[in-house]
Amino acid sequence: MEEIIKNELSLNSLESFGGSAGGCISRGGGYHTDKVGDVFIKFNDKPDAKRMFDGEFASLDAMYRTHTIRVPKPIKSISSGGRSCLVTEYISLNGPSKPAQLGKDLARMHIHNANLLAEKEHSSGFVGGAEKGPTPVTQFGFEIPTCCGYLPQNNDWCDDWVAFFTRNRLKFQIDMLLEKRGDRELMSLWPQLERKIPEYFKDCGPIIPSILHGDLWSGNYSYCENGPVIFDPASFYGHSEYEMGIMTMFGGFGGAVYSAYHEVIPKQKGADKRIQLYELYHHLNHWNHFGSGYRGGSLSIMQSLS
Question: Which stretches are annotated as coiled coil (predicted)?
């Protein structure tokens, strides 16, 4: 695979350093190159790995282009002979903790698209003004499927957030579980919860699409010399509160992160219940990935919200 990478990136040398590391889904490590600096390369030989890495490439690119929070710059997604890899910028993760900056930068990323929409509306009153700058996103979804873990997410564009989240996130996961496991309690609880979901958004103001990391648990952020870094995303445009679901599920963020975040994006009425809904998605996704150890957590949230 290393020769293929060298050819794809027009490199003369590709030298491993620092050893390799393995996550839940892929393995990876750092490499010195003679053309593009130090890079980090993730490898995976699963049949659908190309789709996974293409989605991660697009996710990193979308977040990188906001210029709000540090992410590894994506370089290339490569696939050949049943093997796939993702090449990104290498970032040394040995900096001091700056939780307040993490919260602030994450919020700035979440409001980036709203700012673009406001700028477009303002400039539309001027000749040629609306044609300048990045194009804001007005729908919920993403340009291609992204994978939270190795399972693909349905990112088909939708004008309505509640419909998108219900159909493309919760129902998508529940349908997989019912097909594989035929769980009676899940089958009974889902229609009850599905009817109630719109109620949790009655106190919520207008939801403007935000670019999301999508899988921001404590293992997917760290700090470099200059501040926080987020990585291993499963991005799409959605409700900013959605990010809090996985953050809450596994913890590891602390009050300083949330306080700084809410200085930029104030917490809205009813957020705690909606965050439970968003956490439910990740319990269901983990149940589909790792088995019945996540069944209890999934059903408990469904019971409390139904």
Answer: none
In this prediction, residue 125 carries a pLDDT of: 62
d(CA 159, CA 86): 31
Q: Give the model confidence (pLDDT) of 42-71 as tens digits.
A: 999 998 999 999 999 999 999 999 999 999
Same domain assignment for residues 83 and 105? no
In a domain, 3, yes or no: no
**How is residue 225 written in tokens?**
């010399």
Predicted structure pTM score: 0.94
Q: Which amino acid is at 206?
A: P
The pLDDT of residue 118 is 95
User: The CATH number of the domain where 53 resides is what?
Assistant: 3.30.200.20
Question: ∠ CA(63), CA(230), CA(16), 5° rounding?
Answer: 105
Sort strands 74-80 and 83-89 into parallel, antiparallel or unpaired.
antiparallel
Out of 89, 111, 134, a domain closes at 89
Residue span of the structural domain in which 25 resides:
13-89
Q: pLDDT of 238-266, one tens digit each?
A: 999 999 999 999 999 999 999 999 999 99
Beta-strand ranges (E) seen in the chain are 14-22, 27-33, 39-44, 74-80, 83-89, 146-148, 151-153, 210-212, 221-224, 227-230, 236-238
pLDDT band at 128 (very low <50, low <70, confident <90, very high): low
Whole-number average pLDDT of the chain = 95
- Domains in the chain: how many in total? 2
Q: 3-state SS of the chain: helix, strand, coil percent to 5?
A: 50, 20, 30
Does residue 19 share a domain with residue 165?
no
Cβ 1 vs Cβ 49: under 8 Å: no
The catalytic residue positions are: 215
- For residues 301 and 190, membership in a common domain is answered with yes
